[in-house]
Amino acid sequence: MFKINSDLAIGNTGKSLNTLNTEVETLKPVLLYSSNGTNTTADLSDSAANYTYLEIFYRDYDKHYGSVKVYEPNNKMVWAVAGYINDNLNGGNLKFGKFTITDSQIKRTRTCQMDSGSTAYMNCSYLYIVRVLGYK
Question: How many angstroms separate the CA atoms of 55 and 131, rounded?
Fold first, then answer.
């Protein structure tokens, strides 16, 4: 039976198996928020400042889903877009939402909806944050 020395360098990386395992672990996303959806504030389980990227998953009230990934997310604003075209191609709508990321909160600060036929609704709460992942 062989025993692997986890402190030995792997190939020409100069890194041990333990070091490589640690680096791989940091690539795994951390779940910071999960719910059926909030259209006000998502309270994260950790500060956005501790992550290189945040991925925000959202939906609209019609259950159309999307996501946006934000680099160095703390104290940033990001826009999310959801929408659809009717199956018979005679109409549809778009929903836009602005989210502000500050420390351990993501707040929906503005949304609007535009329907086919040029109807626009401002400051409506049509986008919901359902999940947030953090990447170190």
Answer: 8
